[in-house]
Amino acid sequence: MLDFSEKALDHFYNPRNAGPLEAANAVGSAGSLEGGDAIRLMLRIEAGVVAEARFQAFGGEEIVCCSALTVMVTGLGLEAARRLSVDALDAALGGLGERRRAAELAWTALQMALCQFEGRSFEPPRAAPAPAAPAKLLAPRHESKPRTVRDVPLSPDEEARLIAEVIESVRPRLRADGGDVTLLAVEGSKVRVHLTGACSGCQLAALTLGGLQKRLADALGRPIRVIPEEKRALVAIAGAR
Question: Phi, psi (5° rounding) for residue 144?
């Protein structure tokens, strides 16, 4: 997420038109919850014009694309809305590169909604294989540096205790939001964790990992990178650096 354009990051941190639209008279869906890229686009069309557009999405890239799409389509007539292209959405976000699939899903949801409103059928394009788990895509790309470097390195036991304390300190808030985080392993400067529930793959995942990473770096007094992983059968802590 950190290598997104400034335009894309703005839509990620400040999504426009997110949430349900009770007055919607056109709804389109794309992606899937299982794939971590579900999109639901809702339109209120009046007198042949898209008067209002809102969305619900699962996945950081999908939120970015839906936010931009709802801004672009609001106020357009039906013909202009149909002509809105994936390329236009991609350009509006500064170029998505490998994340272009999210723009294709948002475009598909728009076409589905317009077809529903007009009573037409729409055959969505064959979906490309889903990328790796969303949580991995949202992982911080660089280590966090501590505010203060310790003069005397901590022992493996001391580090293990501090890591556990930091993770436990953030869990109540995550659980209150319907998520959780579990420590899997510590391998040198890498701390591997497992995100579940509302913390995995949503727009808050990157913020969750980034905040946890900074707390751990400050507590340990050395650079740390937090990496989300699938849950392993054995939780281990390796003290070697």
Answer: -95, 135
187 pairs with which residues across the strands?
A: 190, 238
Cα 20 to Cα 42: distance, rounded to the nearest angstrom? 7
Tell me how far apart the alpha carbons of residues 209 and 123 are, in angstroms, rounded to a whole number. Answer: 38
pLDDT at residue 236 tops 90:
no
CB atoms within 10 A of CB 202: 25
Q: What is the pTM of this model?
A: 0.54
Distance CA 169, CA 216 (A): 11
Q: Which of 228, 226, 229 is nearest to 163 (CA)?
A: 226
The answer for residues whose C-beta is within 8 angstroms of residue 93's C-beta and 6 or more apart is 4, 5, 7, 8, 11, 64, 65, 68, 103
More confident residue, 57 or 241: 57
E-only strand ranges, 25-159: 26-30, 39-46, 49-57
